[in-house]
Design goal:
seven-stranded mixed β-sheet; about 45% helix; alpha/beta; 11 helices; about 270 residues; Rossmann fold
Length: about 270
């Protein structure tokens, strides 16, 4: 009940939504610095029979989270490209894509100064990767700067997602690609798709419903996440972290299970 009230409150005020999410992610970056926690997404489990994604041993514990980044970014062709990730969080996805997809440069931008500072320390040894503080609705980059923009499970925190889409179109070079994925209620999905389609300069190339694959990843990764929460989080905060992580039995997990929540992948192109 408390979670539903908080969600309703956040949906009613874009400004409040931005402020609360900025505070929350800053608090996570400042207080929870465990090296075992660099990804912040629900993950992706490929369909049965799919060849497993080759991973370095160090990336194996985060397999499902890394697979989501790979599945979203691979169609955007990062090799040799100047890439911007908006909402880079703790930097695990930025580090993974930089090391495995060979972009010319990769910039991770995040609204939280604490998260950026954590990333600059944690991923300092990764060539061609840098991090900067940046507001998704007012990106601090010149027009036509990037070949690819990546945004993974972040836009539901923004106050005005239409402003973010307009900024993506602005910073992309002509022909550039926007690799985008996030979840929404089924009722909100139509409005989200219409916003994307109506953004001047952007056109939808691909749209894929990956709800079942994200749900499978949540269930397969449940035990690992529970162990991390038990190790690093105070007992009073564990229920909140469990909901945030999408643990089985929580509202996020139930939403994907009963299809009241949908998780979509998009690939767009800058005209």
């Amino acid at each position: 009940m408390l979670l539903r009230f908080c969600v309703l409150l956040l949906e009613s005020s874009p400004t409040l939504r931005r402020l609360i999410w900025r505070w929350w992610y800053g608090r996570l970056a400042g207080r929870y610095t465990a090296r075992d926690w660099t990804f912040m997404n629900y993950g992706y489990a490929p369909p049965a029979g799919t060849a497993p994604l080759p991973l370095d041993e160090a990336d194996e514990p985060d397999r499902f989270c890394a697979q989501l980044y790979h599945h979203v970014a691979e169609p955007a062709r990062l090799r040799g490209a100047d890439v911007l990730e908006v909402g880079s969080g703790r930097g695990g996805g930025a580090s993974f894509l930089t090391r495995t997809h060979a972009p010319k440069s990769y910039t991770g931008a995040d609204y939280s100064p604490q998260a950026v500072a954590l990333c600059q320390q944690r991923h300092a040894g990764v060539p061609n990767l840098k991090f900067a503080v940046g507001d998704a609705e007012r990106l601090p980059f010149a027009a036509a700067t990037f070949d690819v923009v990546v945004n993974v499970e972040s836009s539901h925190c923004y106050g005005h997602v239409d402003r973010f889409f307009a900024e993506v179109a602005r910073v992309l070079r002509p022909g550039g690609r926007f690799a985008y994925t996030d979840f929404r209620s089924v009722a909100d999905l139509t409005a989200l798709t219409q916003l994307l389609a109506a953004t001047p300069g952007l056109e939808i190339v691909e749209q894929e419903d990956i709800t079942a694959r994200v749900l499978a990843a949540l269930e397969a990764d449940d035990a690992r996440k529970r162990a991390l929460i038990a190790e690093f989080v105070h007992p009073r905060l564990r229920p909140l972290f469990g909901e945030f992580a999408g643990l089985s039995g929580g509202e996020i997990h139930r939403g994907f299970s009963d299809r009241s929540l949908t998780y979509q992948r998009f690939l767009l192109r800058r005209r």
